[in-house]
Each structure stands twice: as structure tokens, then as C-alpha cells.
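R.M. (postdoc): so does anyone remember the format we settled on? I'll just put the C-alpha cells first.
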């Protein structure tokens, strides 16, 4: 048997080295928490180390070897994490797929990858096999000739982006470790407790929650059901750090504002819950990524002296490129580059990235790789600018740059972010390519609509009629105009339609990370769009 190379967490160049170093350092300390029956059940680092090695033996017995592609489909669980590290032990390539994808889409990606092994987990996969193996022996079991190196392919992550064209991003062991270590240096390596809300099948949670937890040797708790139990779990766990997407933070602002409204209307109903209170009361920092975050949301958090820190990254960069300091308040910026990452702006403003975190390329797609990788520089497709303090600000997507019939250029995502800063508006998509003026499809905040209907005693017979009621339409129009009041005439939304449902992942209108797919939405609502220009 070959021994795992000795490495400290900061000198590790592969994930198994990082993991083993932390297991030996932390041993009997609590590591991974699972919420069961209203309580947190803890697994120690030593228990996790033994479970990973046992699972690696099982995988080896099943014929999984170095370089094999292994698909894993399942929600966040102990088993998901153990399987991930066991595959790294063997030098296999982990290909996680989102559970939100349809069965046919999952099969399409399995076929494209060529993976011979598929692991499917259910929501109950949180049991950890007990072992008496001592942490002194952990790391000594590594199959002969199977130790992965820094250049070994670690994972393939399928990202459809907003166009629907799936691409398999190839990330190496060095990509993931370099990004994880640099991120810890930037935000500070603390023995903190964090609650995982995002799916580990997405690189954001995988690097910023899972691998950062391993590097720091801190405590990680899996949210039982992010869609249903997030707020309840926050009250139980009282996390110090959370990574999430803008949609969740906007929801928290809406809930806190609704609490203020409730307390104002009924003085005997008790004090309003703050954002900090909704998150358990001990929260120290909230990090945000995955999409643009409305500056008004950052400002609302700042009112409670709660840092909401939007960073910037993409799957092809493992993913973190820039991260803000918790000591600075800059709602329009996404921080500075990590210490080992270079960022430049092309002549047209496109953000270019170079560093050890940049992907190897796209799986089985050399032409797509050549389109975005030149001399080590990754063309991100995002437009940016530097502020006076050297922080990066995201302007929009290069491919989404919209030209009106008048020749005026528009970045629709920037307008959508502003519009959605209204507590009355949950989602919005701006239309206008080749048109004389801008229009929008608006998804209203259902709680605000319901509250207004009840408060004003409006006579409506259905949800559809509720959102189209003249009073509701007038409120939405007022909100849109207020959010865009500081912009020139060509950036004003002249017409809009209010729809009675949110944009859907199942209908292909959103990606698994909740980014909007503009082309699909425009196709699905072609009739409504045509009416706004008739």
C-alpha cells in the first residue's frame, strides 16, 4: 500500500491531501452536522475520514479506478460528501448533476459525459457507517498507483448558462485547491459554523462551503430542506456564515419588511423579526454569488449592521474570482481579485481572468474551449469596470447587450436588478432587442399582492385576475418608474405585462442556480410580448 503524501492544509495541492491533513489535525472535533428530528447530529472528523476510506475501498471493489467518470445525482447529504471525497481518493472524476434537472436531461448529460458509473442518492442518505479506525491510520489506505496529482482531472461540471447549451467544465485538483486556499486567505480562516443552503452539485457551494470547510477544519451543517426548512433551521443552528444567491436575500428583505408592516398594524402582535433574527441571531457575514444582487438589498442589510458581501465568479474559474472585504461597504462592487488571480478588462470591457483556478477546458468540446481560453486568459463573457478603490463592478453580460431600433445600447440585466429591488416585484425580464422602446414581463411578489387585495378589499375571483387588477397594475407601474427614475429616457420601461406565476426551472426558463434564460422566456411569452408592441 502506498501512503498518502504528508501535507499541511495550506501546502496541500490535492483535495485528499487537504482532507487528510484536517482529519489528523481535528480528529475528535465535531465536523459535519445533520438536522434530524429538530436536533443536530454531529459526525467528527475522524469518523468522516474513516467513512471516506471505507467508501473508497467499496468503489475500488466495484471497479472504479483512476480517470473513470462517475455521475452522482442526489440532494445534499453526508453520503454525497463522503462519495465526493472517496472518488478523489481514487483519482476518479466526479460528475455531479443537479436534482432539479429532468430525467431526460440527466440522461442526456450522462450520455454526453460517457460515464460508466452512476450513483443515485435519496434525501435520506445521511447515515454514516461507524468505524473504529484511528485517525493515526487515516490516509494510509490509498490504492496502488491511484494517487491523484495536482494536474489530475477532479470534476466535470455541466453548466448550461442562460443559452441552454450544456458544456462540461473540466476542473483539476489544483484548480479546486488553489481557489479554496486563496479564498480562505481572503476572508480569514476561522473555526466558524456555517449552514449549507445551496446544492453541492453547484460549484459555488462546493468550493465556498464544502472545500472551504475542509480547508479550515470548521463546522458545517446541512440544511434539512432548503426550500422548506431554511428559516426553521436557522433558528436551530444559529449559523455565523451563509453562502446564498440574491433570490434568497431578497426574500429575507421582503420577510423582514412584512414583519415591520405587521408590527406597525398590530401593536399587540409582538416586535418585528429583523433579518438578523430570521437568520438565527448570531449571523456575522452573508456572502452572495450566482447572479447580480440589487444594491438596495445590500443597503437594507447594512441598516442592521449585517455585512452582505457580493463576490464574483464563474464555474470556469472554480468559481471565485473576486471577493469583498467585510470591512468595506461597497454595494455596487464585487470586491478585489484573490491573491493568485489576475483580472484584466478587454477594450470592450469584457472581464478576463487568469490563474491556477482557471479550468482545463470543456469536456469533448475543443472549439468551445478555444473560444474562451487564449494564452491562459479566460474570457468570461461578463462586462465590468473598476471603481476608484480598485474594486470590480459587474456591468452586465456581453451577449445580453441589447440594441434598440434607435441604435441605443441597453444592458437588460442591470435594469432587471434595479426593478427587482422593489419589494412588490419578485422577478422581471426586460424586452427590447430591435424594438422602438423597452417593455418587461413582471412577476409580482405574491405576498404583497395578497396583502393589498385583503387590505383594500378588492373583488377578485382568481390569482390571474388579482395580478391584473387596475390598482395592482398602478402600484407596479409606480414601482418600476421609481426604480428607474434616475436613468435616461431610452432606459425607461414603457410597457409591461404582469404574469400570475414565477419563471420556472421545469419549463426551462431558469437555470438550476436561478439565472434567467432570456430566449426561453421570450418564446414562452411570445403572445404577451407581441401585444406590448402591437
Amino acid at each position: 500500500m502506498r501512503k498518502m503524501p504528508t501535507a499541511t492544509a495550506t501546502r496541500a495541492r490535492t483535495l485528499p491531501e487537504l482532507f487528510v491533513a484536517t482529519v489528523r489535525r481535528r480528529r475528535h472535533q465535531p465536523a459535519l452536522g445533520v438536522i434530524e428530528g429538530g436536533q443536530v447530529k454531529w459526525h467528527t472528523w475522524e469518523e468522516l475520514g474513516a467513512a471516506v476510506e471505507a467508501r473508497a475501498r467499496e468503489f475500488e471493489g466495484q471497479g472504479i479506478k483512476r480517470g473513470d467518470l462517475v455521475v452522482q445525482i442526489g440532494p445534499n447529504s453526508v453520503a454525497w460528501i463522503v462519495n465526493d471525497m472517496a472518488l478523489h481518493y481514487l483519482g476518479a472524476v466526479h460528475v455531479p448533476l443537479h436534482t432539479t434537472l429532468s430525467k431526460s436531461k440527466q440522461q442526456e448529460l450522462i450520455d454526453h459525459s460517457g460515464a460508466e458509473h452512476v450513483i443515485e442518492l435519496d434525501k435520506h442518505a445521511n447515515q454514516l457507517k461507524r468505524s473504529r479506525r484511528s485517525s493515526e491510520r487515516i490516509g494510509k489506505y490509498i490504492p496502488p498507483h491511484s494517487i491523484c496529482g495536482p494536474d489530475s482531472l477532479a470534476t466535470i461540471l455541466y453548466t448550461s448558462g442562460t443559452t441552454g447549451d450544456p458544456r462540461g467544465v473540466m476542473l483539476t485538483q489544483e484548480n479546486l485547491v488553489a481557489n479554496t486556499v486563496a479564498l480562505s486567505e481572503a476572508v480569514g480562516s476561522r473555526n466558524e459554523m456555517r449552514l449549507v443552503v445551496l446544492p453541492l452539485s453547484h460549484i459555488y457551494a462546493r468550493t465556498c462551503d464544502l472545500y472551504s470547510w475542509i480547508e479550515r477544519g470548521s463546522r458545517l451543517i446541512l440544511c434539512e430542506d432548503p426550500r422548506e426548512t431554511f428559516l426553521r433551521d436557522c433558528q436551530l443552528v444559529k449559523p455565523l456564515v451563509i453562502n446564498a444567491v440574491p433570490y434568497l436575500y431578497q426574500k429575507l428583505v421582503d420577510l423582514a419588511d412584512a414583519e415591520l408592516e405587521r408590527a406597525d398594524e398590530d401593536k399587540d402582535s409582538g416586535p418585528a423579526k429583523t433579518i438578523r433574527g430570521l437568520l438565527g441571531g448570531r449571523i456575522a457575514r452573508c456572502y452572495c454569488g450566482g447572479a447580480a444582487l440589487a444594491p438596495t438589498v445590500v443597503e437594507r442589510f447594512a441598516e442592521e449592521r449585517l455585512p452582505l458581501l457580493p463576490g464574483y465568479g464563474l464555474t470556469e474559474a472554480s468559481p471565485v474570482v473576486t471577493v469583498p472585504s467585510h470591512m468595506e461597504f461597497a454595494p455596487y462592487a464585487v470586491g478585489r481579485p484573490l491573491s493568485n488571480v489576475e483580472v484584466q478588462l478587454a477594450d470592450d470591457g469584457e472581464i478576463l481572468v487568469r490563474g491556477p483556478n482557471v479550468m482545463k477546458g470543456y469536456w469533448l468540446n475543443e472549439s468551445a474551449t478555444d473560444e474562451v481560453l487564449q494564452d491562459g486568459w479566460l474570457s468570461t463573457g461578463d462586462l465590468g469596470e473598476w471603481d476608484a478603490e480598485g474594486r470590480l463592478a459587474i456591468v452586465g453580460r456581453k451577449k445580453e447587450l441589447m440594441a434598440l431600433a434607435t441604435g441605443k445600447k441597453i444592458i437588460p440585466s442591470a435594469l432587471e436588478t434595479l426593478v427587482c429591488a422593489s419589494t412588490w416585484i419578485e422577478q422581471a425580464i426586460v424586452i427590447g432587442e430591435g424594438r422602438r422602446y423597452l417593455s418587461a414581463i413582471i412577476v409580482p411578489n405574491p405576498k404583497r399582492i395578497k396583502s393589498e387585495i385583503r387590505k383594500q378589499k378588492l373583488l377578485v375571483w382568481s390569482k390571474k385576475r388579482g395580478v391584473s387588477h387596475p390598482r395592482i397594475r398602478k402600484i407596479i407601474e409606480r414601482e418600476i418608474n421609481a426604480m428607474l427614475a434616475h436613468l435616461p429616457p431610452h432606459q425607461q420601461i414603457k410597457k409591461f405585462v404582469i404574469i400570475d406565476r414565477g419563471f420556472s426551472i421545469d419549463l426551462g426558463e431558469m437555470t438550476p442556480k436561478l439565472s434567467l434564460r432570456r430566449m426561453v422566456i421570450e418564446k414562452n411569452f411570445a403572445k404577451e410580448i407581441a401585444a406590448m408592441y402591437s
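R.M.: ...and that's the designed sequence above, right after the C-alpha cells. Also worth knowing: The radius of gyration is 24 Å. The domain at 230-398 is CATH 3.40.50.12780 (Rossmann fold).
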